[in-house]
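Design request, tokens follow.
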């Protein structure tokens, strides 16, 4: 996905329409349908998630677009497929023809496909073009980061909108896709809160935040009454269904969650921000795919990259927005990840110290913790 600082900006008045358009496009892709993407300089294309490739959807794509589709994948996935180490975040593969099975296999590292057996032409699309937007969109949909993209030859935005309406297809602007994370975070608002006594922190409130589009809620667990005039002890914790809820031994997330709550209470108060960013931002289904890859010998970093994702896809703009709404601008961050400190600073939060936060390994997560330390830079 392109750097957000370089992506086209949108006016505040457009935010509700922008979020709604992307949300609808995400829903269409997750249901196996195609969407129309409009990019700068009059470019437009049909896009279909690689996971949704079937003989029927490929035929429909070709019939409607009347052009040869390309398969857009991340540069990381291209490298894994043995197609070269390219600096572009997204690359395109062109073939004489794509079968549905081949498209799905190229997107899924569990397939074991040999990309070298095919004569692909490899291209690098425009940073803010339709292909790059399509990959960003399937990432937002928590699908594998690969999409079939077929260019359209239509004259002008009005004609494109009319054509999409006649075809019964949703139209989404590439700029809205690239700005979605920023726009969604900026529209977060407090929607509910309640006192929730916890075993280690009886004086606790949970405050829910929801973006304007009604998307996923993030939670703030506020322990005691932190002083906004002093640096507040803060832990940013990404949700982990397997670790937090089931107590999985494959990671240390459950220990980190409960340990942070206890430590914040012992320190006299603070905030734990619980972000809806499962699997370092790739979603639960993709995290389970990554687990299968780990069982085949890949570590936690390599597994994400085999899937075509960055090692860490999390976004910290929601955390910064939540802290601002709570009235906290200065924090001491409880983390072993120096990158998290820098990411929060980049979002405008004054991080005045790092508080170590680690727990003993077990036989199931020892290699996981080693990978985070050696490859992820965690100070464990």
């Amino acid at each position: 996905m392109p750097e957000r600082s370089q992506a086209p900006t949108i006016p505040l008045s457009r935010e509700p329409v922008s979020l709604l358009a992307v949300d609808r496009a995400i829903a269409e892709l997750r249901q196996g349908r195609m969407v129309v993407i409009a990019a700068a300089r009059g470019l437009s294309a049909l896009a279909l998630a690689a996971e949704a490739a079937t003989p029927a959807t490929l035929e429909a794509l070709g019939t409607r677009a009347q052009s040869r589709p390309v398969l857009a994948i991340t540069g990381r996935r291209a490298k894994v497929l043995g197609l070269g180490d390219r600096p572009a975040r997204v690359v395109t593969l062109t073939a004489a023809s794509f079968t549905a099975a081949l498209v799905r296999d190229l997107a899924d590292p569990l397939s074991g496909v040999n990309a070298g057996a095919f004569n692909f032409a490899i291209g690098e699309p425009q940073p803010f073009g339709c292909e790059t937007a399509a990959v960003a969109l399937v990432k937002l949909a928590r699908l594998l980061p690969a999409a079939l993209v077929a260019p359209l030859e239509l004259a002008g935005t009005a004609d494109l909108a009319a054509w999409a309406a006649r075809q019964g297809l949703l139209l989404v602007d590439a700029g809205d896709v690239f700005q979605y994370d920023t726009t969604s975070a900026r529209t977060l608002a407090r929607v509910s809160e309640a006192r929730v006594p916890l075993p280690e922190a009886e004086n606790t409130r949970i405050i829910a935040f929801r973006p304007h589009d009604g998307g996923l809620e993030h939670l703030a667990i506020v322990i005691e009454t932190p002083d906004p005039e002093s640096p507040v002890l803060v832990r940013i914790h990404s949700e982990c269904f397997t670790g937090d809820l089931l107590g999985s031994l494959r990671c240390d997330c459950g220990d980190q969650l409960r340990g942070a709550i206890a430590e914040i209470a012992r320190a006299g108060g603070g905030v734990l921000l619980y972000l809806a960013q499962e699997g370092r931002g790739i979603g639960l289904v993709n995290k389970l795919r990554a687990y299968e890859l780990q069982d085949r010998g890949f570590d936690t970093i390599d597994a994400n990259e085999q899937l075509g994702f960055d090692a860490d896809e999390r976004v910290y703009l929601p955390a910064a927005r939540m802290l601002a709404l709570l009235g906290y601008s200065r924090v001491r961050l409880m983390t072993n990840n120096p990158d998290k400190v820098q990411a929060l600073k980049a979002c405008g939060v004054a991080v005045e110290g790092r508080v170590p936060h680690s727990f003993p390994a077990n036989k199931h997560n020892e290699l996981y913790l080693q990978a985070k330390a050696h490859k992820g830079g965690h100070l464990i």
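Comment from the thread starter after seeing the answer: thanks! Confidence is low (pLDDT under 50) at residues 1-6.
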